[in-house]
Amino acid sequence: MHAGISMNFDPVTFGQRLRHYRRSRQLTLDQLGALVGRPAPYLSLVENGKKEPRLSQIAVMAKALGIGVDDLLAPDPPSRRAELEIELDRFQRTFPDLGLPYLRPSVRLSDEALSHIVGLYHRLLEAKPPLVT
User: Fold this and answer.
1) Residue 119 to residues 17, 89, 124: CA-CA distances in angstroms?
2) CA-to-CA distance for 29 and 65, rounded, in angstroms?
3) Which residues of 91-105 are buried (b: 16+ CB within 10 A; e: fewer)?
4) Is the N or C terminus of the chain more exposed, i.e. has fewer CB atoms within 10 Å?
5) Distance of CA 111 to the CA centre of its chain
6) What is the spatial distance between Cα 18 and Cα 58, in angstroms, rounded to a whole number?
């Protein structure tokens, strides 16, 4: 195992970090795919936390983006926006019984609206009675 790699790998946070660095380099999924030898749909799954890349692939991605492996594997979200998107995803998975459609945090969803929605989920979580075990 590579030094600095946590055993608590979070594919959602990793995907957000990958997206952040890709966009900061102004690369499309297709362009990054060409650099790392993987198709854009695969990279999209990784960025959305639905696919976990192998460590060797992480090293290739980091090299293509001009960053260290540890930059991609850092446990914290790369921005406040990414943190809110991760929280929204987790809350939506926590409360499937609400019957709400999945809300994908696209770029059209403002930071303010995203913050309000996540805040409402926090209030809902506070109000939810604890589970009896």
Assistant:
1) 23, 13, 9
2) 12
3) bbeeeeeeeeeeeeb
4) C
5) 16
6) 9
Cα 27 from chain centroid (whole Å): 17
The pTM (predicted TM-score) of the whole model is: 0.81
Q: State pLDDT tens for residues 54-95.
A: 999 999 999 999 999 999 999 999 999 999 999 998 888 888
* 7 or 82: which leads in pLDDT: 82
Q: Residue 35 is which amino acid?
A: L
Q: How far is CA 66 from CA 9, 25, 32, 61, 113, in A?
A: 21, 9, 12, 9, 33
Round to the nearest angstrom and report the end-to-end CA distance of the chain. Answer: 37
Q: Which helix (H) or strand (E) holds 122?
A: helix 111-127
C-alpha pair distances (Å), 100 with each of 60, 70, 94, 124:
38, 36, 12, 14
The residue type found at 74 is A
For residue range 95-118, list pLDDT tens digits in order: 888 888 989 888 899 999 999 999
